[in-house]
Design goal:
Layout: E1 10-11, E2 13-17, H1 20-25, E3 38-39, E4 43-45, E5 55-62, E6 65-67, E7 73-75, E8 81-89, E9 93-102, E10 109-119, E11 124-126, E12 136-138, E13 148-150, E14 158-165
Parallel strand pairs: 2-8, 9-14
Antiparallel strand pairs: 1-3, 4-7, 5-6, 5-8, 9-10, 11-13, 12-14
Length: 191
């Protein structure tokens, strides 16, 4: 009697991003690794889903396999398997709108209004200056203004508006008939 024994072939499981360039651009976390040599038919336990603020992980998949919270393992086929994952932009991500008004001394600004909004990661948002603020006007030349931006997944997006103080002249004049001799010059001050 001749007995032959065969050793099963081994295969590997690797993880990859479906769109590696995009994953790098959005700051996706490092991919999991699996150094196990799996034999044909052996149960493979899939690594947990990845997390990234402002994004929802779409799960792992490969031809013939879709892995989600309900399917966390599969039987190793007679080939290497690459599981692909990707992130989808999340909705409900907070972004802010801030409005700064010039101080009386000029040149410095104080935050007066903050408005919170929500949107979808990656969407471009645009806001408008406040309609009317007595004594102020939107300073469209201020280089610190940010009137449009893309929503960052980490909630750090802030649109900024700066308003310069309007200046009004107040003139003081002496009644020519009553002007004192040696009276000081009258100046103009911003109000």
């Amino acid at each position: 009697v001749l007995k032959l024994f065969y050793d099963r072939e081994t295969y590997n499981v690797t993880y990859a991003y479906e769109n590696a360039d995009r994953a790098q651009l959005i700051g996706a976390p490092a991919l999991p690794t699996d150094s196990t040599d799996y034999k044909y038919g052996q149960t493979v336990t899939v690594k947990p889903d990845l997390a990234l603020g402002g994004y929802t992980f779409a799960g792992w998949h490969s031809s013939g396999y879709t892995v989600n919270n309900e399917t966390v393992n599969f039987a190793m086929p007679a080939r290497d398997v690459t599981l692909y994952g990707d992130f989808e932009p999340a909705s409900g991500v907070v972004w802010k709108e801030e409005h700064y008004f010039e101080d009386l001394s000029g040149g410095t600004y104080t935050l007066k209004y903050t408005f919170d909004h929500t949107g979808t990661t990656g969407d471009t948002v645009t806001a408008q200056p406040v309609a009317e603020e007595p004594g102020f006007e939107f300073d469209g030349t201020n280089t610190e203004n940010i009137v449009s931006a893309q929503i960052a997944g980490d909630g750090s997006t802030v649109l900024k508006f700066h308003y310069k103080r309007k200046s009004y002249s107040v003139s003081y004049i002496y009644d020519p008939a009553e002007q004192p001799t040696g009276a000081p010059d009258l100046s103009i001050a911003p109000y």
